[in-house]
Design a protein that fits this description.
Blueprint lengths: L39 E2 L8 E6 L11 E9 L2 E4 L1 H4 L7 E5 L10 E10 L12 E5 L26 E6 L14 E7 L2 H7 L9 E5 L15 E4 L2 E9 L10 E5 L4 H8 L2
Antiparallel strand pairs: 1-9, 2-3, 2-5, 3-4, 4-7, 5-6, 6-7, 8-9, 8-11, 9-10, 10-13, 11-12, 12-13
InterPro entries: Peptidase_S1 (IPR050430), Peptidase_S1_PA (IPR009003), Peptidase_S1_PA_chymotrypsin (IPR043504), Peptidase_S1A (IPR001314), Trypsin_dom (IPR001254), TRYPSIN_HIS (IPR018114)
GO biological process, one term: proteolysis
Organism: Streptomyces siderophoricus
Length: about 270
């Protein structure tokens, strides 16, 4: 997650909660593996559905477990993530790890990805930025799936709603990577705010945005695909960073899960 230098297009994407890159650029989805700027340490015990997306061939041989994106376990065999994370990867090269708070360790449970569904209208400008991964075996029951928001869930998207984002992305603008899962408290912003800051890029039919007006916390590079959670549901998928202004510290832009709930649900049945 960075300013809009689309991960899949201009950068390969490894993100879980965003790094600020470049002042005049639109919004860069998280690039390569990096944690939430301005957040605090969390754990997979607190967020058992938060998973890391790894390059399988590197899973247990590289320092950060080969992590390059985040995801959300929504059933024992299904993970929701960003399309830009996996569109250029072979499913057989990708793995999912649950229960590994510290990426330098070898605990938790690893699963291979059997297949990946990428939204058929995903675009290199990060429109329709949603994917569903099918695991080769179910995750153990201690990793409780997180329900997805549906079209009936309008409350979580109301301006001012408290939400929380999770990831292993960059810690700061000095490109220090987080090894431990982090999270940040945010508030959902009015759609018109992000439309004004990002004309032509922010589409309220498929995006939602959130930030912390006090601390300026936001997701960073390496956080892409990770969860934005409100009211006990997955309401957003980390996609890209919006432009900011003096009155609006850097907002994160998230794929609006409710807008894709029917398509996601269809994949969960397969």
């Amino acid at each position: 997650m960075t300013r809009r230098q689309h991960t899949a297009v201009r950068l390969p994407v490894l993100a879980c909660l965003l790094a600020l890159v470049g002042v005049g650029l639109a919004v860069l989805p998280a690039a390569t593996a990096h944690a939430i700027i301005g957040g605090q340490k969390s754990s997979t015990e607190q967020a058992p559905w938060a998973v890391s997306i790894n390059l399988w061939r590197q899973t247990d041989s590289y320092p950060r477990s080969g992590q390059f994106c985040g995801g959300t376990l929504v059933t024992p065999t299904k993970v929701v993530t960003a399309a830009h994370c996996v569109v250029d990867e072979e499913p057989t090269d990708v793995g999912v790890v649950a229960g590994r708070t510290d990426l330098r360790r070898h605990d938790g449970t690893m699963r291979k990805v059997r297949k990946a569904w990428v939204h058929p209208r995903f675009g290199r400008h990060l429109e329709n930025d949603v994917a569903v991964l099918t695991l080769d075996k179910p995750m153990p029951p201690q990793y409780t799936p997180l329900p997805i928001a549906t079209t009936a869930d309008t409350g979580p998207y109301r301006p001012g709603t408290r939400a929380r984002v999770y990831g292993w992305g960059l810690l700061d603008n000095e490109d220090r990577a987080a090894n431990v899962l982090r999270s940040a408290k945010l508030r959902v912003l009015p759609d018109r705010t992000c439309q004004r800051l990002n004309p032509g890029d922010f589409d309220p039919t498929m995006h939602t945005c959130a930030n912390d007006t006090v601390t300026g916390a936001h997701h960073a590079e390496g956080d892409s695909g990770g969860p934005l959670v409100a009211d006990g549901k997955l309401i957003g998928i980390v996609s890209w960073l919006a432009h900011s202004s003096d009155s609006t510290p850097t907002p994160g832009v998230y794929t609006r899960v409710a807008a894709f709930s029917h398509e996601i649900a269809a994949q969960l049945r397969r």
